[in-house]
Specification:
Length: about 425
């Protein structure tokens, strides 16, 4: 998957300062710091209103709603409904759509290394439409609506819901969403230590399409890992190289436990190693909870009736490990935004246990299409016609999968060689 984006570095400027109100300052994991932003505390005040004049403060809103994240600067000049501010670039992004709000300086923190102003953010009066080396350009009027982001955190001590808006700037959205997910998960002060986090996400696009995602993680860094996962998904969607609609709304439901709740797949054994086409293979599993008695489980996977004689591999894995392997094994690479949505929608959660049978049949893959188990002549024809740079040779083919939902994060992966004998299996 893609990583979280980084923001352009503005030559000659110290790390850009953004002010936060409504959420605690980031701890050891800070997506904004990794993007070159320094976060300081701020306040909000509805009494700070109106259009600022030259010499007064204006703030560019990155996040607003139940929390505010903003960068502020001095208004250089006002020409009717146009304001020139900052006197330098904010992110040097060129055209932007950032709500512009009135701001008021509360104090100045002087420093030879990086001085900054403590300020209160007031009511929006317009939109910053340009972010250039010479400064920011704002226009008075109705500010943009922004991307709606709803975050609900369920914990043993109680549920909590936040509603935010995020700036309509694709490169900023993954950083802001990752930051909000991390901040909401750590709002009660628990930012480190063994934990498990489960995610249910719903993403809506401007054209009405929706994408549902599920994922889970348990580890000492479960919170930042989940926040990074959410931000990475948004980066893939908002920064897609394919023509795509804008993001309209993101809903995150995060279940958190402050213990490594989950199961380790400590043992997996197939009942037989020689099978027939159509036969059902039982797989005996031992699942180890954290500091509890192991659990036994038996699952079954059926060999497809048309499977030819020869070697066949049985794969037993948690959903996250299986997804990573499957993407590589099948050469999955989107060639359109529809392909990207299908790829993301097909990701297995770590709460899913996957049994898969994999044959040694070769195939090919090209952007948008995976064609495993092709006859050798077909594969050679495609490789010749499309060129070696456009075709990826596949060494195996997934012939069937069976899934079992655990409801908690799973960890573990196994592979077993099986042999398919000639003839159809018949039930005795």
């Amino acid at each position: 998957m893609a990583a979280l984006p980084t923001l352009p570095r503005v030559p000659g400027l110290a790390p850009r300062t953004v002010a936060l109100a409504g959420l605690p300052l980031p701890g050891s994991f800070d997506p904004l710091a990794r993007a070159g932003l320094a976060t300081v505390p701020a306040g909000t005040s509805p009494e700070v209103d109106g259009v600022p004049e030259a010499g007064e403060m204006a703030a560019a809103l990155l996040v607003w709603g139940d929390a505010t994240l903003a960068a502020a600067g001095t208004v250089t000049a006002r020409d009717g409904n146009r304001l020139y501010a900052f006197g330098h670039a904010l992110f040097a992004l060129g055209p932007v759509r950032l709500p512009a709000a009135r701001a008021k300086v509360l104090a100045v923190q002087r420093s030879f290394q990086s001085s900054f102003k403590l300020f209160a953010v007031g009511k929006p009066f317009g939109t910053f439409v340009a972010d250039r080396p010479a400064g920011m350009l704002a226009e008075v009027g109705t500010p943009p609506d922004g991307l709606a982001v709803a975050v609900r955190v369920r914990e043993p001590m109680g549920d909590r819901q936040w509603n935010f808006r995020v700036a309509e700037v694709p490169i900023l959205q993954p950083l802001m969403v990752a930051f909000l997910a991390n901040s909401c998960l750590t709002a009660r002060g628990a930012g480190a230590g063994e934990a498990s986090v489960r995610l249910d996400a719903a993403i809506e696009f401007a054209d009405g399409r929706r994408l549902a995602l599920r994922q889970a993680v348990r580890s000492a860094d479960a919170v930042p890992r989940m926040a990074s996962y959410v931000g990475t998904v948004v980066a893939m969607l908002a920064g897609s190289p394919f023509p795509h609609p804008a993001l309209r709304r993101i809903e995150l439901l995060l279940d958190r436990e402050e213990r490594p709740a989950g199961l380790t797949i400590s043992e997996a054994l197939p009942a037989v190693t020689t099978v027939a086409p159509g036969e059902e293979v039982a797989v005996h599993l031992r699942l180890q909870p954290h500091l509890e008695t192991p659990r036994s489980l038996t699952l079954k996977v059926r060999v497809p009736p048309q499977t030819p004689p020869g070697p066949l591999d049985l794969i037993v894995a948690d959903g996250a490990a299986w997804t990573e392997y499957r993407i590589k094994a099948e050469g999955l690479a989107p060639a359109s935004f529809v392909d990207l949505l299908a790829l993301l929608g097909g990701l297995d959660s770590a709460t899913t246990l996957v049994l898969a049978l994999e044959s040694r049949e070769r195939g090919v893959a090209q952007p948008g299409v995976s064609q495993p188990a092709l006859p050798p002549s077909w594969g050679a024809t495609l490789a010749t016609g499309l060129g070696p740079r456009n075709v990826q040779r596949l060494a195996t083919a997934i012939v069937t999968t069976t899934r079992w939902e655990a409801g908690v994060p799973l960890e573990g992966a196994f592979r077993f060689p099986l042999t398919v004998r000639p003839g159809r299996w018949e039930k005795p």
